[in-house]
Design brief:
The structure is a homodimer.
Chain A lengths: L4 H25 L6 H8 L3 H4 L6 H24 L5 H18 L1 H11 L9 H22 L9 H21 L10 H12 L12
Helix pairs in contact in A: 1-2, 1-4, 1-6, 4-5, 4-6, 4-7, 5-7, 6-8, 7-8
The first copy, chain A, binds a DNA duplex through helix 1 and helix 3.
Chain lengths: 210, 210
DNA sequence: ATATTTGTCCTAATGTTATTAGGAAAAATA
DNA sequence: TATTTTTCCTAATAACATTAGGACAAATAT
């Protein structure tokens, strides 16, 4: 009844090989232009064998970002742990996220460029996790209101929209331009402008530290 | 040599019929799931006849937003004509753009959800026109700096990124949520936050009127 | 008016690609 | 050693984009 480890490992290993091949090809050539034959060749398998691991091309497309985003979600907790103040948390969030994108551009490309067009996107686990990732921001803005860092009449959801919209825009352009420059260029200036939008007018900046 | 009007008209009419059919089906079912047979049936033609009008499915996909965006570009000049001050222009830009999206949601859906995934997108006329559309914002921010409305050290390109990112985010979510609410909900609050990011600190708000 | 060219459309291929059938070989288990 | 399960393959099948080749009619030329 107990499964043999080596078998398990090799099965898992093959699965990972397929995922990596698909990731590479999707992000290089796009989803449509990548064929199942391409992917299976790259992974060293026949087409049919691939169907033992994935239900089909679409399933494969959805699996890739699923892994990435759920990993991000788990990491975020760790990253924000111990950071004091809403503005500091926001800053960490932005730098952390762009770093993760920089480190996994293939995953990011699939999420940003190919996923939204998929009719099932809204029903996927990825979408749910992306929402959770963004929901953190709402908590941060609410915290900022409580401690006086942020405007008292700030709508946290709208603040989130502005923050996420800007972040997504930066990432999307970087991906479309083939990652030909640093994501962190001018990021300080961008962040300062965003904070100016959210910050309380007469912010006694040390208030929340007491 | 001179062409008959009725013939010309019927040719043009058929072309438009095909475009409208494709627009409807692409935005309802997505690009991938829409077949050439679907489109040609909807337009009352055979598949082969469609190829007299368009080079193929991809050409059809690119033609639709091309028409829309170039129309937008032309309209924008008119809309901003006579509006005084950078903040007022920004406001008009935002309201105008979202209105146009509201009025042509099928075109918007194609631009926002299906176009970016296309490998040729960066080389299309649509992309060039979208860039021009967004470049207007840079002019507006520069004007705002000259007349003291905007922060003197504002980087106009970054301000544009924030503005466009927020706008695109609002539109994208609205499209993904099947246009089930008004694009203008909370728009005032959103706009005020954005302006707070860009505005000069001690803005003597009437300066630029002199 | 008749012949010829051009424009519009069709049915029937063709070729690519995702997916499935059916079974062989190997590995695990009894 | 026999049997079941896993993993993989070759060879269909089916959906679809695109093309061939020609019919028919409208426009134009003679």
């Amino acid at each position: 009844m107990a499964k043999n480890n080596s078998k398990n490992n090799s099965k898992e290993h093959t699965r990972i090989r397929i995922i990596n091949s698909a990731k590479k090809l999707f992000s290089e050539q796009g989803y449509q232009k990548t064929t199942i034959v391409d992917i299976s060749k790259q992974a060293g398998l026949s087409e049919a064998a691939l169907y033992e691991y994935f239900q089909g091309k679409e399933d494969l497309l959805l699996t890739i970002p699923d892994l990435w985003v759920s990993e991000l979600l788990h990491d975020l907790d760790e990253q924000l742990f111990g950071i004091q103040g809403a503005v500091n948390k926001l800053r960490k969030y932005l730098w952390w996220y762009l770093r993760r994108v920089e480190q996994a551009p293939l995953d990011a490309k699939i999420v940003y460029l190919f996923l939204k067009t998929n009719a099932n996107f809204l029903n996927t686990e990825v979408y749910a996790n992306v929402k959770r990732l963004y929901a953190y921001l709402i908590d941060i803005f609410e915290e900022g209101q409580k401690n006086g860092e942020m405007k008292p009449d700030l709508n946290p959801r709208i603040a989130r929209d502005i923050f996420v919209g800007t972040m997504d825009h930066i990432v999307t352009r970087w991906l479309l331009k083939d990652m030909s420059y640093s994501l962190f260029d001018n990021l300080d200036h961008t962040f300062n402008l965003l904070v100016a939008a959210f910050k309380a007018e007469q912010s006694n900046s040390a208030d929340y530290l007491n």
